[in-house]
Amino acid sequence: MTSSDDGGYVHDPSTFDDDGETSDDADWVETPAHPETADREFDWRGWTLVAVIVFAFIIAPGIILLWPPATDYLFALIVLPLIPAVLLAVTAVWATTRP
């Protein structure tokens, strides 16, 4: 059976070198990209993350502190802190990933 008849992957031992790697596998290892060539500027995503950090660590605790004491204990001490924590987590993942 030839490779054109199977319609899929065919193992060809001649494409591998002595180390068991193909030429495509070793290319990024031999000539890696320098980290400074990556697009990692502190742009609007970074400033958005800073704003959410300020909200989560300064504004939200102040709101929780000033919340009326007649409020339910579960809501005031568990649910209110959970909102900035989830917002911070989602924003941090969003800000550090690149499309």
TrEMBL record:
Bias type Acidic residues, positions: 15-28
Keyword annotations: Membrane, Transmembrane, Transmembrane helix
Annotated region (Disordered), positions in chain: 1-35
Entry-linked InterPro entries: DUF7977
Membrane-spanning residues: 47-67, 73-95
Superkingdom of origin: Archaea
Keyword Transmembrane helix set for record: yes
Protein name listed in UniProt: Uncharacterized protein
Organism whose genome encodes this protein: Natronococcus occultus SP4
